[in-house]
Design brief:
Blueprint lengths: L4 E11 L3 H12 L3 H9 L2 E9 L2 E9 L4 H9 L2 H11 L2 E2 L11 E2 L6 H5 L1
Antiparallel strand pairs: 1-3, 1-4, 1-5, 2-3
Length: 119
């Protein structure tokens, strides 16, 4: 059954401000493990992009109606390969100063939408 895009989310995270670590992090993301790609799709994520400016990352996710952050977290918690990937990536990342306890990627709040302004 094909699910169409339902929502778009924008999340933020910082990398450690170390050019060698940043380069290695990007290298890992040019060849993401197949099990990670599958887990992303299985969670209902239709499209995902990560952008970098300096050491700040912005991840944009387009999700279908099967996606929820809680469901994705539960799936990840049960997947040892995802846990290995997250542990590896954690060595490159640092939490945003305003992140809540245990929060890795911080969900952004949309403050502007061109289409809604035009209509």
């Amino acid at each position: 059954m094909q699910h169409s895009v339902k929502n778009r989310y924008c999340l933020f995270l910082d990398l450690q401000d170390d050019p060698e670590k940043i380069a290695l992090y990007e290298a890992y993301h040019r060849q993401v493990w197949p099990e990670i790609l599958k887990s992303i799709q299985d969670a209902g994520i239709v499209q995902m992009e990560i952008y970098r400016a300096g050491n700040r990352l912005c991840m944009i996710m387009e999700v279908n109606d099967t996606f929820s952050f809680e469901r994705k977290q539960a799936m990840d918690d049960r997947n040892p390969v995802v846990q290995s990937w997250e542990k590896l990536m954690d060595g490159f990342q640092q939490r945003l100063p305003f992140a809540r306890e245990g929060e890795k990627w911080v969900l952004g709040n949309k403050i502007f939408d061109l289409q809604s302004q035009l209509s």
